[in-house]
Amino acid sequence: MKRVHGLDIPQSLEDVCDPQHLALVVYDMQVGILRQIKNPEAIVARVSRVLEAARSAGVRIVFMRHMSLPKELMGAFAYRMAMAWQRTDDPEKVSPWFLRDSPGFAITPELAPRASEAIFDKLTMSALEGTPLSIALRDCGITAIALVGVAMEIGIEPTARHAADLGIVPVIVEDACGSGHAEAAHRSVEALKFAGDAVFTDTVSFCKALQSTDRASR
C-alpha cells in the first residue's frame, strides 16, 4: 500500500481485498440471461466459489438483476435497444424478456441470495446508474467492488468504468465473468486493461486474497 498526504493508495489485489471496504457485485446471473451464453455451468461454478469466499470473509454482497418494462412503459430508446438485441426492425415484434417475476428474471437458484444480501433491479447496463447501489456503497465506506457475472461486454465493462469515475476501484474476476460474444468480451478486457483503472484477477487468486485478509484481521 502506498501513502501520500495521509491517503492509502491501493496497488495490489491484497490492498483492495479489505473486507471492510470491499463489496462483491454479482451482475445479472439470471436464468434467462445464462441461457444465452455458452457454458453457463462453468460461470455459475466460479461465481459460486467467489460468493462463498466473500461470505466467509464478511464482504458485503449485492446482486443485480436486469429488468424489462412492460411495453406500455417502454420509451423510444428502450424499443431501439430491444430491437437491436432481438434482431428485428419491427418494434411491434419486440418482447420484454425480463419482466419482473417472469421465469427468466430470477437469479439462478445455485446462487440463492441470503437475507443479509441486497438485490437491486436495473434498466441500464451500468449497475451504478439509476439504482441504489452507489448510495449503499458510499454509506458503507466501500472503496472497491469486485465484479462477477454476465456479461463482460454488455454490463461488466460499463459498470467498471462507472465505478472508476466515482472513485471506486473495480476488481474484475475475469474468469468468473461470462460473455455472449467472445471477441467483444476480449475487446472490453483489453480496453479496461489499457485504461488502467481496474484490478484484474481470477477466481483462485481472488479467493486466496480474501482468505489472507480474513486471517490477518483475526
N- and C-termini, Cα separation:
20 Å
Instruction: Label the overall shape.
Output: globular
Runs in which pLDDT lies below 50 for 5 or more consecutive residues are: none
Number of strands: 8
Number of distinct helices? 8
Mean pLDDT: 95
Please indicate the percent range of residues in DSSP E strands (runs of 2 or more): 15-25%
Give the topology string: H per helix, E per strand.
Answer: EEHEHHEHEHEHEHEH
Report strand order across the widest sheet.
5-4-3-6-7-8
**What's the gyration radius in Å?**
17 Å
Helix content range? 25-40%
Tell me what the structure shows:
The chain has eight helices and eight strands; from the N terminus they run ββαβααβαβαβαβαβα. It has helices spanning 13-16, 31-34, 40-57, 76-85, 133-139, 152-165, 182-195, 203-216, and strands spanning 2-4, 7-9, 22-27, 60-66, 118-122, 144-150, 169-178, 199-201. Strands 5-4-3-6-7-8 form a six-stranded parallel beta sheet. It has a two-stranded antiparallel ribbon with strand order 1-2. A hairpin with a 2-residue loop joins β1 and β2. The two termini are 20 Å apart. The mean pLDDT is 95.
